[in-house]
Amino acid sequence: KIFAGCYMEFGYWSRAASGTLEYTSLLPQLGRTMRDDEQIWSIIQLDEWVIFQSPQTLYFYNTIQHTFRTIQSDKLILKIFKVDGSIYYTVRNEGVYKIENGKSHLVIDDVLIRDLRVINIFKIDGRLIFLTSESGFFRMNNARASAWEIPANEILKHTNPYCALQLQNGKMAVGTISDGIYIVTPDGKIEYHIDQENGLSNNTVLSIFEDQEKNLWIGLDNGINCINLTSPIQAFYNNDGVLGTVYISKVFNNTLYLGTNQGLFCKRLDDPAGFKFVEGTSGQVWDLHVFNDEDLLCGHHLGTFVIVGDKAQIIDNTLGTWTFKDIPGRKNLLLKGNYDGLYVMEKGSYGWIVRNKVDGFKSSSRFFELDDGHHIWVNHEYKGVYKLLLDADFTKVLEMAMEPSLTVGRGSSLVKYRGNILYASEEGVYRYDTSQETFIYDSLLSPIVTSEKYITGKLVVDDKDRLWAFSGENLYYVTINHLSNKPKINTVAIPLKHRKMTLSFENIARTQDDIYLLGTANGFLSIDISKVEHTKAPHVYLNAITLRDIDNHLTAVNMDEYGSYKFNSGILNFNFSVPNYSKYSETRYQYQLQGLSSRWSDWSDESAARFENLSFGDYVFKVRAKIGTIQSENTTQYPFEVKRPWYLSNPALGAYFLSLLLTGFITHKAYKRHYSKKLINKQLENERIIIQIKNEQLNLDIENKNRELALSKMNIIKKNELLSSIKKELKASEKAKNIDSVVNLIDRNLNNTKDWEVFVRAFNNTDKGFLDKLKSLHPNLTPNDLRFCVYLRLNLSSKEIAPLLNISVKSVETRRYRLRKRMNLPHEEGLVNYILSL
Q1: 744: which DSSP letter?
Q2: Which CATH architecture has domain 541-648?
Q3: Has domain 769-838 been given CATH number 1.10.10.10?
Q4: Which residues contact 528 (CB under 8 A, 6 or more apart)?
Q5: Which of 114, 456, 580, 650 has the fewest Cβ atoms nearer than 10 Å?
Q6: How far apart, in whole angstroms, are the C-alpha atoms of residue 728 and residue 711?
Q7: Which of the two residues, 111 and 303, has the higher pLDDT score?
Q8: In what order do the strands lie in the sheet with 118-124?
Q9: pTM of this prediction?
Q10: Between these two residues, 832 and 593, which has the higher pLDDT value?
Q11: Is 709 exposed, middle or buried (CB count within 10 Å of its CB: 0-12, 13-18, 19+)?
């Protein structure tokens, strides 16, 4: 619950199951009305009690019994405080009261407190401490107040404190009207001063609140800021630009030195004052090197300096000193890399001198290392890696060669780590193998430059033998597992946008214990890696679920209930979050909708997800998060269903089933009718085929009969022709005897009725009903006429008929004529055509 009060009203806000805040007034439980124009000025909570303070009344609300108690005053109640489990309040011109056993009694009425405006009350070492707006801190002793003589008092007296809070760690946060916020230690020292110059949105602090995670919430006159005092990362911003971009840092003699593009700056570690410029070092500083814990050397664009305190003395004015390296076994010699090659420096009884320039090598030597075999390795970003062999006195190069196993790499660097020469570029990390005399790929170390988008191959080795690398999203540092002797890669999540460093000039150095200083474009970051390593896994929350329908109406969803939504009901929106108030560790989310996809989404900083046009079915929405590289301890989920559309509902499916049954029944009946009809048609077809076969058989029989008739006709014709020919020859012969008897025999055969009878039977088989029909139409026809009609029916010519009738052709024509007359045929109708038509 969030308790609130205002003009003539107080109550609380509570989060509904839908994720929205709902207000409940407590006035109905109060049992009476508030005073005219009464306002709630302050609210505090103690155990089960919530106390609302108005100008003349304290309302005590019991959150368990839901009852009220009140304490009223005739004078103005200025402020109420919770101190060490007790409630105190101040009354104008009276002093400070304490509530014990439900009653108020005066604690202190000292004039120093009574006449001043008390901002807050603290308890330190068993004593009450009063912070006033005009005179700073006072300490109570035997019901009397005296000024608390601490360093913070001199500053706070002039800043007009307006609000204050004792933090969980015992420190005090003091908000001022015009000077931001101060963090004061229990012994009265100012630890931090945070104002608009170093990140606060406004210098007017009106309220302070500390949450469970020890984040400090600052209410300003135009907004709210959150200060993460427990963050492992603290920033120093140089907003006025005096300090510039930090390129190198070093702690020497309890003094922190910063080499920047503006020069060299220094600051005592135990001095709260700001950085001091080291005179004579104006310009670009490239490196700081501590020699034998005795001297601090500065590599500068203008040359080489030795630094003593806040003073600088130039040793060599040769332009461009990149870096320094100790020479093993030569305690008084130092090798430095310059714009134009390598130089040997020597420390003698009169200080530092440049002993000689290494002859035979003139390339820029920003990255170089000495191995154990008297070789010097020099990395040139645009040319490659040189392998140099110098003489014993480091005066000249005896041998020089380009390393063939390495390629030129953008942003590459060269370092010596745990006795090994390492080369890093966008291809990975390579280690020089002395047994093979070549660089080999180091698969254990390469992930520090290849696991993310490559920005630089710059490697840094600190004084604790940690190897540092820099990516677009993180810093990496390598430590050695003492049991396995294998490297362990650790991550510090600081995106490049917060580092803002010139690429390939990244720098980090240990300042004390596990605290490191990371140079940035406008200051530096202080990183406590011991806190980074113990960062707690975040917890992801599902804040709200809303449904936007097709009319653009937004409905909050009850997240405590199983979700059930109509099909195509609108757009489902999920809002989720992780309480993360670190500026440098970005929160990313990943979600999955089981039922739609088994795949998790890509990591994104979007804290919302939306789904539309979901098909019906069961779903589970899941979301998880990570801060930097630390993944959330939980995966929040919300199960829900999308109902079937009306056309797939149970009633609809039942209707579809009944329709299917009806359709099946109708189809069955139709198929049955179709099959029966098809069967009948098949039977008819079979009968037709049988009839056709019978007809074909009959036609075949007719053809056979026709052939018999034709054969009979031909036999008769041939026989009659033969007999007629014989008869003719016999009559012509005068010598033949018994000619008449032979002629008579021939005549009998020519007029043999048996041949005719055989012919008629054959004719009737082929042309049934013709003679009967002819007789019925022309009953006056004689047998010879019928015989003549049969021959005409057979479409015989007169020449073919003559032998059959044993008459001449002319007699045949005469018979045709007589037959027409007997049949009474019209003149225009042909005899043969008429007979053929019957």
Answers
A1: H
A2: Sandwich (2.60)
A3: yes
A4: 232, 233, 514, 515
A5: 650
A6: 25
A7: 303
A8: 118-124, 127-132, 136-141, 144-147
A9: 0.72
A10: 593
A11: buried
